[in-house]
Structures are given as structure tokens and as C-alpha cells.
């Protein structure tokens, strides 16, 4: 319910799952049921083969993408896909979100990455699994724990975290970063990236070995 509450999706758009790594199952939103009609009993539990092990509804149409992420990225306990407006705008242009300011650097120390546009034969094949593979390919040289979000070209954002709540938090942060970056680029199309020293300072004081942000 945090997804519509934060304005990250309307009606049936988007989906979220929570993974129990010990049991090898995830609970995911059912497909095509409006948020305001959802209850906890409607969640669908599936295994890593995509087989429904509990629940009376069909799982999200994006279930296979979630499965690829859990199977490939260690330490994930939650995955979310939204259609939040600004992040989707960047995704639809296939443009990584430049790291323009400290709001961005407080959460990740690089541009928000964007996948390649999917080839037509991949679209015709196992589309949702291919979407997951595109995300994995995009993270070949980066850490999914340090960069817990991605834009899928032509589609929209995915985010993740140690649990479903943290995943949705990261999706909300992504939307805010995307909105600020859009405004920054609109005011000044040639706006410079944040200098590396400021990127490191802001990222490390929240996430580095000697982090000192917040309370002990
Ligand atoms: O992007 C997509 C489908 O491509 C989804 O986000 C839909 O908007 C919601 O699908 P369900 O999770 O309800 O199947």
C-alpha cells in the first residue's frame, strides 16, 4: 500500500515482492488487482521456478523478473517495480539519471543506470525473464547493494532492498531523484555533474565504513 500512498503507481500499475531466502519462496502482489482492493490474503506465494505454492490468484505478470533478481543478487529481500512518472520518463528515453546533486549522492554514488533497449527476439521470447537478464547485464560491473535501483529502457524503474519496505523506500527515493534531475536539466540543459569529492563525501557519510549520519 506504500506504493500508491507515495504516488509511485495508480490502479494496478507496478508490483512488489518479499523473499524468504531460507524457504526459497517469495510473496508477490497478484496481477491486475487494484491497490484499493488488495488484502494480505490476496498475496501469492511462488517458488523460484515461478510455481504457485500458496494463494488463490494469479501472481504479478512481472514475477519472473523478480525471480531473476532474487536468484542473481545476493542479500535481496524485496523487489519493487513502479511506473512512477519522472523515473519512467527517464526510462522511456533510455537515459541514465545524471548525479547532479547531494540528494542523489546521499543514496547512490553514480548515475542511476539504464538498461539497453531489448532486442525484438528477446521481447518475443520469455519477456519477463529477459527483462531480469537485462538488469543483471546492466549490473555486470556495479554493486546492486550500493546501487539499489535501475531504469529498464522503454519500460520503467525497478528498485530493491533488504526487505520489501526498503525496496519501496528506494523506489520513492528514485522518483524524487528523477524529478529533481528533470528540473535541473530543464533549468540548465548543460548542468554539470556533482564533483567526485562531493559525491564521495555524501555517499560515505551515510554508507561508508565511518558513516556518521543519523543516530547510533
Ligand atoms: O509493467 C507492468 C507490466 O508490463 C506492470 O507493472 C503492470 O503495470 C502491473 O502488472 P501486474 O503486477 O498487476 O501483473
From TrEMBL:
Any GO CC annotation of this UniProt entry: cytosol
Domain of life: Bacteria
GO terms, biological process: pentose catabolic process
Enzyme Commission code(s) on record: 5.1.3.4
Domain (Class II aldolase/adducin N-terminal) ranges: 1-182
Catalytic activity: L-ribulose 5-phosphate = D-xylulose 5-phosphate
Pfam name, any one: Aldolase_II
GO MF term list: aldehyde-lyase activity; L-ribulose-phosphate 4-epimerase activity; metal ion binding
Keywords of this entry: Carbohydrate metabolism, Isomerase, Metal-binding, Zinc
InterPro entries found in the cross-reference section: Aldolase_class_II_sugar_metab (IPR050197), Aldolase_II/adducin_N (IPR001303), Aldolase_II/adducin_N_sf (IPR036409)
SUPFAM superfamilies: AraD/HMP-PK domain-like
Cofactor(s), by name: Zn(2+)
Entries under NCBIfam families matching the protein: PRK08193.1
Family the entry assigns: Belongs to the aldolase class II family. AraD/FucA subfamily.
Name this polypeptide is given: L-ribulose-5-phosphate 4-epimerase
Source organism of this protein record: Sorangium cellulosum (strain So ce56)
